[in-house]
């Protein structure tokens, strides 16, 4: 008797995206499209004027009815935010009719199928979790209100999620990787004038958790700072993600 098992196929990470993107022979151009339109292989070869529409269609394909579609939209609009399931439900019930049980079941289903992810605050089990989606580009496909930092941070999370299990957030820190004592900060438009401010903001965390290394992920800036013996590496996403 042959036993069948489930196989999870993740969307493309940026390194894989580069291998599929034959149209753009420039890493930075590929990165711009990856950031704007997401990590799904099928989006690479679709005409640019059809990409957003296809992202919207994919959301509808997930949903069995209009209620599920509204649930998904709310979740995708809430990426990189600290919102409990109850807070999300309270927001949604103002606009559509849905029971708490059904909403909770849908969230559980989406999480178990890795459509959404919830991450905990380190050493604070009762704190509100942060929410991420399996494709960072969904948010901009359904909203005219651009949340660049949220989208960029979700993209960083997806890269980390493929490599690490124990990912947390902290006050003033986007991600803490417990396994290798690393902090990850999402600062898309970092500049050198922010250096001292950032160090002051995280130095107590570095000392308390005995952090070995810090990464500040940007859109295009690179540099290297130090706090005591801890290196603070400032790298563009397109370099950091293919190391």
List keywords for this structure.
single chain; 243 residues; alpha/beta; 6-stranded mixed beta sheet; two-stranded antiparallel sheet; 10 helices; 16% strand
Q: What can you tell me about this protein's structure?
A:
With 243 residues, this protein is an alpha/beta fold. 43% of the residues lie in helices and 16% in strands. The protein has ten helices and eight strands. The protein has helices at residues 14-20, 27-37, 48-62, 66-77, 85-92, 100-112, 138-142, 148-161, 195-209, 237-240; strands at 116-119, 130-133, 167-170, 173-177, 182-186, 213-218, 223-227, 230-236. It has a six-stranded mixed sheet, sandwiched between helices. It has a two-stranded antiparallel sheet with strand order 1-2. Strand 5, helix 9 (195-209) and strand 6 form a beta-alpha-beta unit. The longest helix has 15 residues, at 48-62. The chain starts with 13 loop residues before the first helix and ends with a helix.
Task: Please summarize the sheet with the most strands.
Answer: 6 strands, mixed
The portion of residues forming beta strands comes to: 15-25%
Structural class: alpha/beta
Low-confidence stretches: none
Fraction in helix:
40-55%
Strands of the biggest beta sheet: in what spatial order?
3-4-5-6-8-7
Query: What is the rounded distance between the termini?
Result: 43 Å
Number of β-strand runs:
8
Task: Please compute the radius of gyration using only Cα atoms.
Answer: 19 Å
- Overall geometry comes to globular
Number of DSSP helices? 10
Concise structural overview:
This protein is of the alpha/beta class and 243 residues long. Helix content is 43%, strand content 16%.
